[in-house]
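Record type: monomer structure entry
Structure origin: computed from sequence
Chain ID: A
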Amino acid sequence: MQSLLDISGLGFERDGRQLVSGLSFAVKPGEVLRIEGPNGAGKTSLLRVLAGLYSGYQGDIRFNDELLTSRCRPLLQQQSLFLGHSPAIKMTLTARENLEWLAALQCRQVSAGILEAALAQVGLTGYEDVPCRQMSAGQQRRVALARLFLAPLSLWMLDEPFTALDKTAVLELEGWINDFAAQGGAVVLTTHHDLTTVTPLQSIVLEGSR
């Protein structure tokens, strides 16, 4: 099976420190890859590089067998989603308005039905028009996670996605990851959470600068 992501000889710096050097790995459809390592090892930076959000790297990144360049980057961003450690939502907007705004940032047009279905998927039925500043941290995280269900995607890139979620929501998210992989999607994530039900699970370990 052809790899969705193929990384060869990847290296990058941050604040003048070489965080990653000579890293090579591949992610195929249906696979879940966990990036591990101590704080400061470059886990979040690696996700941002893979998402096409940082171009100051060495080596090759291929998405669907196409070298990641300025020409390929829009294709990657259409078929994938990067969710950072922060929910990245506007507190003055409602859950519905946040999803509309976030979809527009990716040049995606989504119907009211799709928005409501995405919010229902993450357990926010009845909260569509509630300003996010009135929500708990867990509900705010769910608003961010609803982006996963706005459009068909082939790759999820998740940075500490379990933050602020209770035990029930954690199991739900693990289930969504399993379902996505079972349908042929690929997931690359960082987390300090012990993934108890996600299978099959691969991992790479970043050691950081010494």
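Annotation 1: The mean pLDDT is 93.
Annotation 2: The longest strand covers residues 17-27.
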